[in-house]
Amino acid sequence: MQCFPENRSWRALSATVTAGAECAHCGSRDDLVAHHRIPRRYGGLDVLSNLEPVCRSCHPRVEQESIAHAKLVWERPERPETAWIPRRRPRMIPPY
Ligand SMILES: [Zn+2]
What we know:
binds zinc ion
């Protein structure tokens, strides 16, 4: 599979992000996970520039912040299955 040069395996990526790192939020070195700065469901990619080491106790909070932030900047959905399309068809009101 050579389609995406950045598309290394998640295991390798998260190992690279967390190896010898410390939590970007509290500085802990224990139980680090690779956190998506832009969540995947909002178009964030599995690339090093979108990942940061965060410990497991910070991760849920950091994740919520990322999602909240992504919602603010997320204006042009490119994937139809995640797009929310307001489909309110104006009802014709019978004149009688
Ligand atoms: Zn932490």
